[in-house]
Fold:
Amino acid sequence: MKLFSSVNDVTDIKQLVADALHLKQNPYGYKHLGENRTLGLMFLNPSLRTRLSTQKAAMNLGMNVMVMNVDKEGWALEFNDNVVMNGTTVEHVREAAGVMGQYLDILGIRSFPGLKDRELDYSEEIFNKFVEFSKIPVVSLESATRHPLQSLADLVTIEELKPRPWPKVVLTWAPHVKALPQAVPNSFAEWMCKAEVDFVIAQPKGYELCADFTQGATITHNQEEALTDADFIYVKNWSAYEPYGKVIPGYDDWMMTNEKLAATNNAKVMHCLPVRRNLELSAEILDGPNSLVVHEAGNRVWSAQAVLKKMLEGL
Ligand code: AN0
Ligand code: CP
Structure:
């Protein structure tokens, strides 16, 4: 595997999930694979889970890891070609990524969308330039439109804990005070649409995701109806796709609560984290028996390890 940026980079999803669950049972069985190999984790935005879980996964595989908060510790990067760099940017991604490729065997990169120019964000310009100019295998640590390591961990969690074949999985929009990317819900949707689950998306009017990611999903504005008989509820806020990056006020009652869980099949509640308590998800759910959020974050290690293992095998 040379690229892990979306579900489309995976030839056998079931096998990758099985690999992750196998690694969970046998974390140190492939330490030889990473010997004298170096992973670079480059962050243009904050992270807790992705940073620690991917670093741990690499260490379990015997790799060396270099982590850099490029936004704070690196030179200000220029991404446009044909510019006179007489402003605030100090080096071009062509050189910066090229240099990273000299030091690393695998590059991980996190780069959020600006949420101002939809065409630019959905072109994945920044992520794609790191792929092009580093010339080494690249794993997305969340790009402008997708978060595949998160989605793989989510699918691993569902496979691990499903109470029946073809469980009902509901992605439900949640309130927030900030405009957040569509990357997590886009990605979760594209993975669920290819998984053996009954997948429903519930969101208020105006929060429809880009249809490219939701082919095959049942989409509704009725949260109560969607939650009926659900086995897993995936809670997440996102900003509007149209008008792009906007927050449409008036949907505070979409917060997930214990009361809403009553209609479900004693559903397990998931969230990628970080979560805002009592805004997206009630504290009573997060502190109660139905919450999977910490367990799900634990599975980030095995999903990252399964992907890195595949990349190391291809080097
Ligand atoms: C980010 C997002 O929604 O994409 C990262 C989630 C993993 N969340 C926030 O910015 C709060
Ligand atoms: N879920 C997730 O990716 O968390 P971080 O932003 O902390 O890495």
In short: Residues 47-51, 142, 150, 272-274 surround phosphoric acid mono(formamide)ester (ligand 2) (CB under 6 Å).
